[in-house]
Write a structure and sequence with these properties.
Helix 1 runs parallel beside helix 7. The chain has a 5-stranded parallel β-sheet, with helices on one face. Strands 9-16-10-11-12 form a 5-stranded parallel β-sheet. The protein has 413 residues and is of the alpha/beta class. Helices cover 25% and strands 29% of the residues. A hairpin with a 4-residue loop joins strand 14 and strand 15.
């Protein structure tokens, strides 16, 4: 069946790229974009960076393409109402009580932030406790920082650490509570975790590792955070950054296979006729690896959204997803970038971890699985090419050695 009606559920980056890619590949049928938020599609990475750091609250970081959706691309927008059900037999999506028909469907509903056990019902909701996922979250966090909030960040991952960095830039008291022995030590390794810990402490952030939150107290508004070591931290603002879970609840009973994300093949097809998945919600099979992977990265969402739409309604043959994972962060003025996957049995660090200015290579078998670059932005494109090409460990070490020599030579001039 030649599709004439494309529905994309999820109006963030993956959804936006899906509808624009459909038009770019010549699809002239009906296109509907469904979003739970009332806002036009916007960029999430600036929410924990530039949006908090600007002197005055900036306008929403709306994607430039979003303004063209209705008039330029002829996309029907259904914003402010989430999809609540999928009927793959009738080929309909339920939105606000209405049945939206489709021939091809792209699921791009993203992920929802995890909630602290100490802040779940029956615990009473308290003002001043926020995740940082949406534009509305960012506005609330920014208002609290503007008011000089004593800040507790739960989770020393990228978003939490970016909030801590901005709070310290403003001269505010900040405590970061982390369950691991060091920030991101489980995924990136103990040695790099120690580097990230030093970034926090040398900039005046109190870092409490090997510690969890056991309670949040207040009268209508947060007043203090209780910790597993028996201590308490006074707080006006708590930012919770303990990860996210794929937004798949609305697919219950639909028959679409879900296991920590919507399961799909290397072409992003779910196995349910006419249904594809993309972005944070998609758990795709890695071609030739016998395993699946779900990522919550900007580049992953952008590339998968476009690919899913092309495979769903494009004129050519379906193409597999070959995205090389990439993410970046900025803490206390330090640029942190990663390409590939942080896995494997060996980590090789080249450079100066004290400055810090270094590269860390991650080995899986005889291959380069991933690479971390701290204040080495110029090295990232080459490392990304190596990961994409499936470079051997020896090739990766040789490449990194040349980078180190080049950097050292430049430093002596």
């Amino acid at each position: 069946m030649t599709p004439r009606r494309l529905v994309v559920v999820g109006a963030s980056l993956a959804g936006l790229r899906a509808v624009t890619a459909a038009r770019e590949c010549g699809f002239d049928g009906r296109v509907t974009l469904v979003g739970a938020e009332e806002h036009l599609p916007y960029d999430r990475p600036p929410l924990s960076k530039e949006f908090l750091a600007a002197e005055e609250e900036p306008p929403p970081p709306t994607h430039p393409d979003a303004a063209l959706l209705r008039d330029g691309l002829g996309v029907e927008l259904l914003l402010g109402e989430p999809a609540t059900a999928l009927d793959p037999t009738a080929r309909t999506v339920t939105v606000g009580g209405a049945e939206i028909p489709y021939d091809a469907l792209v699921i791009a509903t993203g992920a929802r932030p995890r909630v602290l056990p100490a802040h779940r019902p029956p615990a009473p909701p308290l003002d001043g406790v926020h995740p940082l996922r949406t534009l509305d979250d960012a506005r609330a966090v920014r208002r609290a920082l503007d008011a000089g909030a004593r800040t507790v960040v739960v989770g020393a991952g990228f978003i939490g650490s970016e909030v801590a960095s901005e709070a310290r830039r403003r001269g505010l008291d900040v405590t970061v509570v982390e369950a691991l022995p060091a920030p991101m030590s489980r995924s990136l390794g103990a040695e790099t975790g120690a580097v990230f810990a030093d970034l926090h402490t040398t900039h005046g952030t109190e870092l409490r590792c090997d510690t969890t939150v056991t309670g949040i107290e207040g009268h209508g508004r947060v007043e203090r955070v209780l910790l597993s070591d028996g201590s308490a931290v006074e707080a006006d603002l708590v930012v919770v950054g303990i990860g996210a879970a794929p937004a798949t609840e609305w697919l219950a009973g639909s028959g679409v296979a879900v296991r920590d994300g919507v399961l799909c093949d290397p072409y992003l097809a779910t196995g349910t006729p006419g249904v594809w998945a993309a972005g944070d919600v998609a758990r795709r099979q890695l071609a030739g690896h016998g395993r699946t992977l779900r990522l919550e990265h900007w580049t992953n969402a952008a590339e998968q959204g476009a690919l899913a739409a092309r495979n769903a309604v494009g004129p050519g043959p379906a193409e597999p997803c070959t995205t090389v994972p990439y993410f970046w962060s900025q803490w206390y003025g330090h640029r942190i970038q990663f390409v590939g996957l942080p896995e494997g049995e060996q980590v090789e660090i080249l450079g100066d971890t004290a400055t810090p200015c270094f590269i860390a290579l991650y080995r899986s078998g005889d291959r380069l699985a991933g690479a971390l670059a701290v204040n080495r932005a110029g090295a990232v494109p080459g490392l990304r090419r190596l990961v994409r090409a499936g470079a051997s460990w020896a090739q990766a070490l040789a490449h990194a050695g040349r980078l180190a020599t080049s950097s050292s030579t430049k430093g002596t001039k």
